[in-house]
Structures are given as structure tokens and as C-alpha cells.
Design brief:
The protein is mainly alpha-helical and 252 residues long. The chain is built from 8 helices and 5 strands.
């Protein structure tokens, strides 16, 4: 991205902020970050309210319309991905529940719920003493007292299914401990991770599948670096050969 564009982004942002503060500046960088943090909190609150309104619209009006079977289709997708009866935990990056009382009992909203949605950066981007640490998802969860001790219990599982996640580097701090739990660097282990995906546009089928494979490769390259492995490409090669990393298409 051209430096000129970056400059103009910063200029416009500064102009908007100063206008909101009646041209009052900041005493130091910490005051600036806390101002931005307060703005983020306000945005999160409004975002949660927006999603709640959409949820109300769906629950009260869409069921009366044809083809309004989103919830049922979501449950069908879940059942196609796995044996629901064998699920021990569902980690969701969405803010809503599943719409099933039994499944909601094992549901954990990683990024907050509709009352307290979280927008944050990965904690690996800055250390705790950095003033920007307040923007990390780790800090946000702690601040909102979302450390659920029941969820921290040692849940035993051998397989993980990932579906509907972009595998963005912003969430590597979530995936790395998960891969540790699956003993991905232990080639004697039989634990598996399955990446489910759907081709939502048949005209883009090749592109969607290629992007899905690329994101998986990036995740495991970053994980191999995190584990200090010399050959970062060998890990995924070995795991796919052992059928411990699989992809599975869900038809929609």
C-alpha cells in the first residue's frame, strides 16, 4: 500500500478525532490509546445492539417468509460435520447462540456474546507492557471477566472440526494451543483436525478451494515457527500424509 495513502488515512483519522474533541489534543500517547479504546467500547456496544435488532427481525418476521430455514440448515450442517452426540465442546467465533438448548450448554463464545462483543488484535502483536495491549483479545476477555472457569477444565478430545473460520492470523493465539492439545508435533499421535468448508459460489469453486488450502498452509507454517521447527513445511506434509489434517466439503 502506498505511503501516501497511509499518510492520508492517518490525517483523516486525526482530523475526525480532533473535531470530536473540539480541537483538544492529547497529553501523551497513553491518553490517545485510552481515547481510542473508549471509542472501541462504544462501537462494540452499538454493534451488539445492531445484531440484536437483526435477531429480533429474524425471530419475529422471517419465519413467516418462504425459505426462511436458516437455523434448521445450520443444525443440519453441524450434524453433517460430526456426530452431535459425541460433541464435548463447541467454540464459536460468532456472538449468538446456536438455537438449540442442548448444544448451547457446551457452547463457548470465543469473542464475546451479544451483550459484550469483542473486537481485538492478536496478543502476539505486542507485549503486556505495551500500551496497545489493551486492544488485544486476551485483555478484552479478562476485562469483561469472560474467563469461564468451567470452560478451563481439561476437556478430553481426540479430534477437532473447524468450519466457517477464515483462519486469519488474528486468531492464531486460539489455534496454537488447540494444535498443542492435538499433539500435532508428535508423529506417534493419532489425533486429527478436519477443516470443513463450503463452496458458496460454484463459479468461484477453484478460487475458494485454493484459498482454503492456502490458509491451512499459512496456519501450520506459523505454528511450525511457533514451535521452533527447522523445516516449517515438513510438519503439514507429514500430517497430511498421516491423514491427521483433512479437508471436508459441506454442500450447501
Amino acid at each position: 500500500m502506498p505511503k501516501e495513502f497511509e499518510f492520508w488515512k492517518i490525517y483523516v483519522m486525526a482530523k475526525v478525532i480532533l473535531k470530536k474533541r473540539n480541537m483538544e489534543g492529547f497529553k501523551n500517547i497513553d491518553e490517545f490509546y485510552y481515547y481510542i479504546f473508549d471509542e472501541l467500547n462504544q462501537f462494540e456496544k452499538e454493534f451488539g445492539e445492531f445484531i440484536n435488532k437483526k435477531r429480533y427481525l429474524y425471530s419475529n418476521f422471517l419465519p413467516k417468509m418462504p425459505n426462511s430455514d436458516f437455523v434448521n440448515r445450520s443444525k443440519m450442517t453441524l450434524r453433517e460435520l460430526c456426530n452431535v452426540d459425541n460433541l464435548v465442546s463447541i467454540d464459536s467465533f460468532n456472538y449468538d447462540d446456536i438455537g438449540d438448548e442442548n448444544l448451547n450448554k457446551i457452547l463457548h463464545n470465543i469473542n464475546g456474546n451479544l451483550e459484550n462483543p469483542i473486537f481485538g488484535i492478536d496478543s502476539n502483536l505486542c507485549i503486556a507492557s505495551d500500551p496497545r495491549f489493551i486492544f488485544t483479545k486476551t485483555n478484552r476477555r479478562m476485562e469483561l471477566e469472560m474467563i469461564d472457569f468451567e470452560c478451563q477444565k481439561d476437556i478430553a478430545f481426540d479430534n477437532v472440526i473447524v468450519y466457517g473460520h477464515s483462519l486469519s492470523s488474528n486468531d492464531y493465539s486460539y489455534f496454537f494451543p488447540l494444535l498443542d492439545k492435538l499433539e500435532m508435533t508428535n508423529f506417534l499421535s493419532n489425533k486429527k483436525i478436519i477443516f470443513g468448508f463450503s463452496v458458496y459460489d460454484r463459479e468461484k469453486e477453484t478460487e475458494i478451494k485454493r484459498k482454503n488450502r492456502l490458509n491451512i498452509q499459512k496456519l501450520f507454517e506459523a505454528y511450525a515457527n511457533y514451535k521452533g521447527l527447522k523445516d516449517v513445511n515438513r510438519l503439514l506434509d507429514s500430517l497430511t500424509t498421516q491423514n491427521r489434517v483433512l479437508t471436508y466439503e459441506i454442500h450447501i
